[in-house]
Write a sequence for this structure.
């Protein structure tokens, strides 16, 4: 790890220094406005220890109050777009912005390469893979486009995907189809599968000898359905089919081991559930598959079996990458199990309530292995856009309507700083609008 020190005594007490070091980046900065420094939040180990079961409100209130600075203007139940950075991460980010800005080109040329390499190493450790198997991208869309467009398709190859996959990835495959490279086979995924095995069997049934790739959206952005990636990838492997996995919504929200997914191509991001500033995606490609891939951005300097051949992007959002160790450190402190359990708990409060009512259709299975934070619903007598508008205009509750068949749905995504009261208020408002 390369550290950058700038006249640290200017603003840093011993404890804050320790805190930043603990958070991972070790970046110590001077010359920042005093109010920014004063706003820095000390991470107290005691806040995270020995508590935090899903319904321990004392624990979650403390975490929300101390570590999240959330607008009080409305109740945000649309945390599926991107995550709010915890305060310690935000402070690290602001400092990193100031470093990159004040130190400018000298910093970018001399210091940043080492810092980025250290961040990549930290991330590889967090993901349980080799740093030679990952690159930073600006987001998951970019990561997955590199994987999809660089994949060695042959004429006549087919790809299997469904309506719950993320639209950008579907469009990328459709673009390749339009160019005559592949054929896309789209099927309708059941919205409420009863079990993981039902999903695996569906893929087994639909995969043919022409299928080359299955697109798997690990956690659907539409209804939050979690698909059993490892089981499907194992089945696909037996048939000689590759799986390209979109884990944009999985990382940090649900517990999984990247190497154990058995998927050789995975796109992820850090700005949804890891709490990093927006602008950090990750592409993972299993080492022995890299040489087959062609690059989207020209780079003939890296060797064919180096993943760096896929990482020629131009000028980078420096501070975003510099903050990665900080966001990982905070996320590790919380622990993905605790986060997942809480998110599932918050989701279950409203799902279990609304699914009882005749005018409301919940379109997400409630089981913990099939959904986590995200779930969606629709009202029988209203469009999804009307419902989302009503919730915001009349109750200051922000959700989002998504395309799903002809009726669409409203996606509801609490985060760990939300309270049971937030989701209960939402459920009450939805029932009111449904006329119950
Ligand atoms: C399932 C899924 N995949 C991919 C993406 C794209 O992520 P990014 O915004 O990092 O490109 C999203 C974003 O909402 C998503 O929900």
């Amino acid at each position: 790890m390369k550290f950058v020190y700038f006249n640290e005594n200017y603003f840093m007490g011993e404890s804050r220094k320790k805190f930043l070091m603990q958070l991972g980046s070790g970046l110590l900065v001077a010359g920042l406005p005093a109010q920014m420094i004063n706003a820095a939040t000390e991470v107290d180990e005691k806040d995270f220890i020995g508590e935090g079961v899903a319904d321990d409100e004392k624990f979650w209130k403390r975490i929300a109050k101390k570590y999240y600075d959330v607008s009080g203007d409305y109740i945000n139940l649309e945390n599926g777009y991107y995550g709010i950075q915890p305060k310690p991460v935000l402070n690290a980010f602001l400092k990193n912005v100031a470093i990159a800005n004040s130190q400018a080109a000298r910093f970018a040329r001399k210091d940043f390469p080492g810092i980025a390499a250290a961040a990549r190493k930290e991330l590889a450790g967090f993901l349980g893979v080799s740093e030679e198997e990952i690159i930073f991208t600006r987001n998951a869309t970019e990561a997955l486009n590199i994987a999809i467009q660089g994949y060695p398709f042959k004429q006549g190859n087919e790809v299997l995907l469904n309506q719950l996959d993320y639209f950008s990835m579907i469009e990328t495959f459709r673009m390749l189809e339009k160019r005559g490279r592949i054929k896309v086979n789209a099927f309708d995924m059941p919205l409420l599968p009863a079990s993981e095995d039902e999903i695996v069997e569906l893929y087994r049934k639909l995969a043919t000898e022409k299928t080359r790739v299955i697109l798997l959206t690990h956690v659907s952005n539409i209804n939050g359905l979690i698909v059993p990636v490892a089981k499907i990838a194992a089945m696909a492997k037996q048939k000689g089919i590759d799986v390209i996995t979109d884990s944009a919504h999985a990382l940090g929200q649900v517990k999984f081991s990247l190497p154990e997914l058995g998927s050789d191509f995975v796109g992820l991001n850090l700005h949804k559930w890891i709490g990093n500033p927006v602008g950090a995606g990750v592409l993972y490609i299993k080492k022995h598959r890299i040489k087959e891939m062609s690059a989207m951005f020209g780079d003939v300097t890296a060797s064919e079996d180096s993943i760096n051949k896929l990482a020629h992007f131009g000028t980078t959002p420096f501070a975003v990458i510099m903050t990665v160790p900080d966001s990982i450190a905070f996320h590790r402190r919380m622990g993905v199990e605790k986060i997942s359990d809480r998110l599932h708990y918050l989701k279950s409060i409203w799902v279990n309530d609304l699914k009882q009512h005749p005018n409301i259709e919940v379109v997400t299975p409630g089981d913990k292995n099939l959904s986590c934070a995200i779930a969606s619903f629709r009202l029988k007598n209203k469009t999804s856009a009307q419902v989302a508008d009503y919730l915001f205009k009349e109750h200051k509750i922000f959700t989002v309507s998504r395309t799903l068949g002809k009726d669409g749905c409203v996606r509801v995504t609490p985060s760990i700083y939300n309270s049971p009261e937030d989701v209960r208020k939402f459920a009450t408002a939805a029932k009111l609008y449904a006329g119950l």
